[in-house]
Amino acid sequence: MSAPSDSPDDIRLRSEIDRSLRHPVMFFFTSGAAWLAVAILLGIISSAKVHSPGFWDSCPWMTYGRVQPAHETALVYGWGCQAAFGMIIWLMSRLSRQPCRNAGTILMAGHVWNLALSLGVIGILAGGGTGMPWMEMPSFAWIPMLLSYIAITIWSMVQFKVRPQGHTYISQWYLMAALIWFPWFFGSAHFLVHGFSGSPLGAAGVNAWFHSAMLLLFFAPVAIGMAYYLVPKVTGRPVYNYALSLIGFWSLAIIAPWAGLQKLTGAPIPNFLPYLGAFAAILFAVPAAVAGINLLKTAAADGETVNVSPTLRFTVWGLVFLLALGAASLLLNSPGIATVTQFTIANYGFDVLGVYGFFSFVAFGAIYFIVPRITRREWLSRRLIKWHFFVSIYGVISIVVVTLFGALMQGVAQETTYDSLWYNASSTVYPYAVLNTVAWCFLLISNFFFFIHLTLMWLRLGRRSSHPTLLVHRHSGSPHGPEGDIDNTGTASAH
Amino acid sequence: MSFRLFAIGLTASFGLAWLSVVVVPFFKLRTPSPVSFQEGVDEKEGIYHPKRAGRVVNGAAVYAANGCYQCHTQVVRPTYAGMDLARPDVGGLSPTIHPDGIDSRRESNVFDYSGLDFAMIGNTRVGPDLMNLVPRIEARIRQQAKDSQEGDLAEGVVAGRVADYLYKHLYNPRLFPQLYWSSCPSMPFLFEEREIMGQPSDDALDVPVEDGWEVVPGDKADALVSYLLSLRHDDPVPAAMDYAPPAATDGPQG
Amino acid sequence: MQESNKPDLDDSLNVTESHDRMLREAAAVSREKHVDEGGREPVSLWIFASCAVIFIFAGLALGNIGSLGSLFDYDQTVKPGYVRLDLSEDGAQGPPPAEALAVYIKKGQKIYSSKCQGCHGGDGKGGPAYPSLAGSEWALGETQRFSMIILGGLMGPSSSGKDYGVMPSQKAGMTAVDLAGVMTYVRNSFGNEAGDVITEEMAAHALKLAEERSDPNQPLSKDELDEKYLAPLEGEPLDPTMMIDPVSLQPVEGAAG
Q1: A376 in contact with C at a CB cutoff of 8 Å?
Q2: How far is A79 from chain C (nearest CA, A)?
Q3: Per the domain annotation, does C104 fall within a domain?
Q4: In whole angstroms, what is the distance from residue B113 CA to residue B108 CA?
Q5: Does A198 touch chain B (CB under 8 A)?
Q6: pLDDT for the residue numbered C189
Q7: pLDDT at site A493
Q8: Beta partners for C232?
Q9: Which of A370, B83, B143, C36 gets the most CB atoms within 10 Å of its CB?
């Protein structure tokens, strides 16, 4: 049952929590959005170089081998991690009903993260990359990032500890899990790889496992946890089946840590490792399906709201991409297909589906929900949101379809043409690379709308109104309750 | 669910996986048990220990920093994991192109990656696998020499031409007419363009450049080519690691 | 009322007013609903069906390990029982035909470097402790005698008369092709120019002779060699310039010389 209104105490508490978190959360979201813009620009350049290698080839900083890792690093650690931090600290605060008392520390730590990341990305472009996918930043970067992570998130763990008695909501379990997993896998992977020499294949294995852990043990739980909050919250409907949410959580916890080594199938490492990794990667479809179906069925009970609310549209599409991610994980790791797509652009497409399709869409939904609450302004323009949504959807779907289909073409060419001329295997990538560049340009446009909108909100130039910015203009019967006042001049009541 | 149950469950589920697939393999792979050649069965004797020559570590660092692993792999998969060995020049050389007429193709093994701290297994195969780069180029050079009536070349001449090929490829792969389709980045920044002082240098590249100027490799190019020249992994392996199908005739080595 | 440049400050001491303003400004917050997770809808059949499919695929992937026993076997780096697929190229000719003498010499060189070089040296000249094969009367002479020295070993003085002690038998692991190769190699290298090819057939005869000895494990002596083995090995002689296939050692019809 949804309560039509809450006591003033509830409202006051929520308001206090939101106010306490305004600066760190807005920092993470705006800085994240800026890094997203950087990442997309780098992505366009690197994709262009695949089909037009002569483009800007004299500049060492822009050579493909440096731009591509810089693009992935900016996307994952600049946008992905910072959006995640913003979501984590806000959601944990709200669910534990504790205002944040360390906003200053968190903000400082956020700046340290940004600094370390900037130096890391510059290091990659300047020719200091380590050559390990998703761990390319020079070795100075990981310790400051780990320390700043701890400084950002330790307060959330404390808040969880002192939460009020009573039922702990599923989102809190997902967030706590992500908070515990991240330092464990990030720290141990970097420590093993940078701290010990002499194990070339071992280091490659640790790196492959780390790559999977970032997606499945950090981005996935944070986004799923956020979605478990947003969908019932905005629709007002109960989560479809509570038992399912626990099953989804524990299946993720048990399965996901084993995945990752399937990238090294065929390499001279212990034979069972890649196949165990493929097994776990396929099984990842189970928690993805359970959480996705659970929440999509919740949202389906109230389709109107999904259509009308920006938060829900993004979140629901993010969940659809979660199902797609599970399906992709299943297909790409299945016995026949895995050998074909192992060394193709499918890996990149899968990463984009996970980080941009699934995680980013839920993050956008969260941002559209959280920012009005912490800035106490409503979003300025319905059109900007719509453009952001539609152009993003087109862009992401294009990238995912193009890379996964192109990968199949590339892989089949690799595995079935045995002449010594590599041209036949390589030339299949060309059209897909062109389409990829176009798709990233779309995403740049969509991010342009988003970034402008977010910056205006950050500058407190949003609409002062009690009426939310919805995607459909309604005169009556707003799902968010009776019409509030448009310009906050104080005559109508907020109820 | 209580916090205690959660903490125990999480630690157990993650910890078990972490130990089994991350920590234990990492340390086990640090010290692979040596394999020796068997007397009477293998032609060689002693422990199997392929050595690399050249500035492997410096060159590998340049390889990593310039992202070559994004498009090139360095692994030859067994036939149950892929058709790499079906190609005539990926795992070694097939009998038609091998100078001795034997089939030197084999899977990668643990010892092929020794000497480095990170095995550059690679991400995608936009470009060909590099595990046996040098034999492949040598075979091509020998074929070219045969086609152009030059006849059999001496070892030293072939080696020199392989190095020249690699330098030119790094400078700009599209300078080779047969590689017009290549999307490998050109890396002129690894080289120096300078005025010819007196005599042109020995290591000047055969690339288009204005009159009176020459292009010579910089330090990084030298290191990288030195590393690339060490990429030859089609040597015979001990019988314990040889998975060749039973020979009908005395063809494959074993 | 509304302080537009300091919207955060809640200055008013009028409780009703500030309460109203708080409700208005926190309008987004105040219209929020509670999160309700107590849904009790039956688990959808879609979930069971998709999980079943997922488990099937996962099982297939795990099955690629080969045998369950190799799970957690950190020493096994390839699938147990792996044998490479036979990848001889369709219609490939294999290595090009070459002259018989060259083919056998090449094969013999490999055997020599693994079995003989250690004592007799890379240049075949031996040393103070080992006889020289370069210009050796026994190496260049009757082929039966030469083959029996290799297969049976030698005790006592060598062809030059000097006693070098015992040469161990090299029979272990020696196939007919190996023997033919190494004999051809020695007879045509280090300055030796016998000019003939010891064929696989002749080497097979040598192996038979070695087996037929009354005391197969005893090294031979000069006397025994002179007494029993002063004859050529039996077999069709092979023209050293004949083009043969390096793999099957059979003559290739119509191949250019």
Answers
A1: yes
A2: 26
A3: yes
A4: 9
A5: yes
A6: 87
A7: 41
A8: none
A9: A370
How many angstroms separate the CA of residue A345 from the nearest CA in chain B?
Answer: 6
pLDDT exceeds 70 at position A1? no
C198 belongs to a structural domain: yes
> Measured at the alpha carbon of residue B186, what is the angle toward residues B182 and B189, in degrees to the nearest 5?
170
Asked whether the beta carbons of C96 and B101 are under 8 A apart, the reply is yes
Distance of CA C173 to the CA centre of its chain: 17
Report pLDDT for B247: 61
pLDDT tens digits along C21-31: 666 667 777 77
pLDDT (tens digit per residue) in C89-112: 554 555 667 888 888 888 888 788
Q: Picking from A381-390, A410-419, B130-139, C53-62, which range would have the lowest pLDDT averaged per residue?
A: A410-419
Contact at CB, C60 and A18, closer than 8 angstroms: no
- Please check the confidence at residue B28 and state whether its pLDDT lies above 80: yes
Q: What are phi and psi of C138, to 5 degrees?
A: -75, -35
| Domain tally, chain B | 1
Does B146 contact chain C (CB < 8 Å)?
A: no
Residue A47: how many other CB atoms lie within 10 Å: 26
For A39, half-sphere exposure in the C-beta direction (CA atoms, 13 angstrom radius) is 22
What's the whole-number average pLDDT of chain A? Answer: 90
Does residue B170 lie in a domain region? Answer: yes
Q: Chain C contact for A257, CB < 8 A? A: no
CATH 1.10.3730.10 fits A15-458, yes or no: no
Q: What is the pLDDT of residues A437-459, one digit of tens each?
A: 999 999 999 999 999 999 999 88
Q: Residue A486: which pLDDT band, with cuts at 50, 70 and 90?
A: very low
> What is the helix (H) or strand (E) element at residue C243, kind and residue range?
strand C243-244
Tokens standing for residue A376: 């106490």
Query: Is A243 an interface residue toward C (CB < 8 Å)?
Result: yes
* pTM (predicted TM-score): 0.82
Three-state DSSP at C155 gives strand
In a domain, C43, yes or no: no
A 10 A CB-CB count for C227 gives 10
User: Is the pLDDT assigned to residue B252 strictly greater than 60?
Assistant: no
- Is residue C175 very low, low, confident or very high in pLDDT (cuts 50, 70, 90)? confident
Q: Domain of C137?
A: 98-244
Amino acid at A397: I
Residue in C with minimal Cα distance to A11: C30
CATH of the domain at C108: 1.10.760.10
Q: Considering only the beta carbons, identify the residue of C85, C96, C247 that sits closest to B79.
A: C85
Tell me if B26 is assigned to some domain: no
Residue A478 has which token pair?
């707003």
- Written as one letter, the residue type at A423 is Y
pLDDT in tens, A261-294: 999 999 999 999 999 999 999 999 999 999 999 9
Residue B169 lies in a domain: yes
**What residues in C contact B20, CB-CB < 8 Å?**
72
pLDDT of residue A444: 94
CB spacing of B26 vs A267 below 8 angstroms:
no
Residues B191-229: tens digit of each pLDDT:
999 999 888 888 899 899 888 999 999 999 999 999 999
Does residue C155 form part of some domain? Answer: yes
Cα(B120)–Cα(B92) distance, integer angstroms: 18
In this structure, is residue B105 part of a structural domain? yes
- B207: helix, strand or coil: coil
Which residues in chain A have Cβ-Cβ distances shorter than 8 Å to B86?
418
Tell me the chain A residues in contact with residue B88 when contact means C-beta distances shorter than 8 Å: 418-420
Interface of B with C in 70-129 (CB under 8 A): 78-80, 85-86, 88, 94-96, 98, 100-103, 105, 107, 109-110
Look up the CATH number of the domain holding residue B174: 1.10.760
